[in-house]
Amino acid sequence: MNSINTNISAMTANLHSNLSNQGIQNSLGKLSSGSNITSAAYDASGLGIANQLSAQVSGLGQAIMNSNDSIGMIQVADGAMASIQDNMDRIRVLTLQASNGTMSADDRAIIQKEIDGLLESSDDIAKQTSYNGISLLDGTGGSAGDGTFTTQSGADSGDTQSVSFGNAQVSSLVGSIDVTTGAGLATALDTVDSALGGINDIRSELGASQNQLMSNIRNISVTQVNVASAESQIRDVDFALESANFSRANIMSQVGSFAQSQANVSAANVTRLFS
């Protein structure tokens, strides 16, 4: 009895049917996950680029959080400096009052007590103002312990911004004020004005740094959106296109199965002819 050992038509149909089934599985994986890269085998280079972009998006998000935290810290410091400035403004008024010739020694002693109280209050503010347990206005804050704070304001190494909070303690800003003596009165107003200038310098530095951080947040927010969009172009699946691919692969799989069955029938018929 003759026999046919190799059915090329059936093997070819089986090959194309298997390829179509693989296409179906790939499409199902993409459609169910929403990702165009369900494994590195699908697009190794695309996966590497998408992962790098994803890391950058996450880094930019943390940089925004860092900048917002630093803005909060600056606002705490500036609020405290505003209170110190209010005290110093009052001390200046009292100094002018004590400088008037109508004041007696007892009057100046009373004024001096109020000045001393305001200076003590200002010193307490400078020593006690803190953020997350970190002193802000005594000149010891920051990573270097010199009152300079550094913000990691970007996603890469070196993307930083520094701000100096300065030392707002009375010993640094003012020293001492004595309105009870003629010698003390002669220098008291200049001392107060110098202290007010120092306060203004500190607050100007804080304000400028806050504005810079806010500008940085706006800039990297736009960058983050653009980078996320680039990642989406690589990673996210096109549902319309993939649905079409799935339908095509499904049809081709059915056609392959039909072709394979017909090839097997034809081979069987040929075999019967030689039986």
Distance between the termini: 6 Å
Number of structural domains = 2
Tally of alpha and pi helices: 6
Q: Mind summarizing the main beta sheet?
A: 2 strands, antiparallel
Gyration radius, rounded = 39 Å
Strand order of the largest sheet: 1-2
> Which series of helices and strands comes N to C?
HHHEEEEHHH
- Proportion of strand residues: 5-15%
CATH fold topology of the largest domain? f41 fragment of flagellin, N-terminal domain
Instruction: Please state the average pLDDT score.
Output: 79
CATH superfamily of the largest domain: f41 fragment of flagellin, N-terminal domain
List the helices and strands and how they pair.
Layout lengths: L7 H26 L10 H56 L5 H24 L1 E2 L2 E2 L12 E5 L7 E5 L5 H4 L8 H54 L3 H35 L2
Antiparallel strand pairs: 1-2, 3-4
Helix pairs in contact: 1-6, 2-3, 2-5
Sum this structure up briefly.
The chain is mostly helical and 275 residues long.
Describe this structure in words.
The protein is mainly alpha-helical. The protein has two domains: 8-34 and 237-273; 44-234, Up-down Bundle (f41 fragment of flagellin, N-terminal domain), CATH 1.20.1330.10. It is 72% helix and 5% strand. The chain contains six helices and four strands. The protein has helices at 8-33, 44-99, 105-128, 170-173, 182-235, 239-273; strands spanning 130-131, 134-135, 148-152, 160-164. The strands form two sheets. The protein has a two-stranded antiparallel ribbon. A two-stranded antiparallel ribbon has the order 3-4. A hairpin with a 2-residue loop joins strand 1 and strand 2 (134-135). Helix 1 runs antiparallel to helix 6, helix 2 packs antiparallel against helix 3 and helix 2 runs antiparallel to helix 5 (182-235). 24% of the residues are buried. Mean pLDDT is 79; it is low at 267-274.
